Amino acid sequence: MSLPEHGLSAVEILDELDALKANDADWGSGRCFSYVYSAGDEVREIARAASSLYLSENALNTHAFPSLGRLQSDVVRMVADLVHGDEAAAGFMTSGGTESILCVVKAARERAKRERGITEPEMVLPESAHAAFHKGAHYFGVKTVTVPVRDDYAADVDAMAAAVTDHTALVVGSAPQYPQGVLDPITELAALAADTGASFHADACMGGMVLPFLERLGRALPPWDFRVDGVTSISVDLHKLGYTPKGASVVLYRSKELRRDQTFTFDGWLGGMYASSGLAGTKPGAPIAAAWAVLHYLGEDGYLRLTREAVDAARKLIDGVRSVDGLRVLGKPVAHVAAIAADGDAIDVFALGDALQGRGWFLDRQRPPDSLHATVSAGNAPMIDAFLTDLAACAGIARATRAADRGTEYATLE
Ligand SMILES: Cc1ncc(COP(=O)(O)O)c(C=O)c1O
Q1: Which domains does the chain have, with CATH numbers?
Q2: pTM attached to this predicted model
C-alpha cells in the first residue's frame, strides 16, 4: 500500500471506510458486550458535534487553548464530585483507563521516593487488577507482587497484607475489577497502604460512572471512593459507562500535592519550558470536548436512567445465565459486569462463545478460568431477552457437541 498518486473523493473514501467496517463487531445492534458502550443516537450526535468543533485543537498547551483547560477542569470537577473528592482533590483527563493507571504508577513511585526514600519500589495487587498496572510496572521500573484472589474473586486482604513490605509504593483494588465485575474490599486494602505510608489506587475505570449513581438509586454499597481513608487516587473512565467517545478518562488524587508526582516538566532542551500532565505530548481536544458535552447533555438524571437500565439488564442476564443447565456466573458481580463460565464440564464455554458469535453476539473470551466476559451497558438492555434465548439454544448445542466428542474419544480408546 502506498499513498494514492491523486487524492480520492470524499464519497470514495467514505464508501471504502463503510465497506471496511463490514466485519467489525456490530455494537449498534446491542449484541456486543464490551468495547463499545452506547447511550443511543442522540448522545452520539451531541458528542459528534462537540468533537467536530475541537477536531484540530491541542490540549498540550492550555495557554494557547484556554477553552480546553476550562473543559478539562470542569470534567475533572464533575467526576471528583461523584467520587466524593473534596476541594483539595485534583486530577487530569487522560486518553483512557490505561493512561490513568500508568500515571498513577509513576506518581506512586515518585511519592515513595520523595517521602520514604524508596529506590526499589513495589506494587501489591490482586491478580484481578487490570493488566495496565503490569504495563505501568514495566514502564516505570516498579516490581509487581501479584496476590491470588479469594474463591469469590475478591482481593484477599490477609494475603495482600502479607505481601506489603517497606518497599511497597502502591497497593491496588478495583471498583469493580474487569474479569468478574467483583468489588474489592477497598476500605481494608486502603488501610494496608496507609499503615505503611504507601499510595492506594481504587481503579474505578469500569465502575466510576455507575456505582455513584447506583448508590443514589438506593443500593447500599461498601464505600470505595475518597470517603475511604487511605484512598489516594481513583481512575474513572468516561469512555466506558460515561458513554462518551473513546479517549476520555479521569485520574484523580486526594490532593494537589499528590497530583504533582504525576506531571513532567523539563527545561533542558532548545524548545523552552515543557510541561505535560500525562504520557502524551500533543493531546487531542475532541475527546475532551465530547466528554464535556455528553456529561452536560445527560446530567444526573440521564446517568441515573442509564445506570438503572444497564444494571437491571445485567441482573436479568445473570439470572438468565444461572437458569441454564451447565452454566454459572463467577463470583458476585456488583453491578454491570459478569463472567459466564461452565458449571461442571458439560460445556466448553469458548465453544459456546463461538456458537453465540455465529448468531451475531460478541463476548470476549477470558481465562483463567475459561469464561465469557459480559460488560452490560444501556445499549445492550433491549437485547437481553433475545440473548438469553440464543444462550439457552447455544448451550444446548455446546452440551451435545461435548457429549459427542466424548463418545468419539471413548470409541477411539476402545
Ligand atoms: C477495571 C479496568 N481498569 C482499567 C481498564 C483499562 O481501560 P482502557 O482500556 O480504557 O485503557 C479497564 C478496561 O476495561 C478496566 O475494566
Answers
A1: 46-295 (3.40.640.10)
A2: 0.96
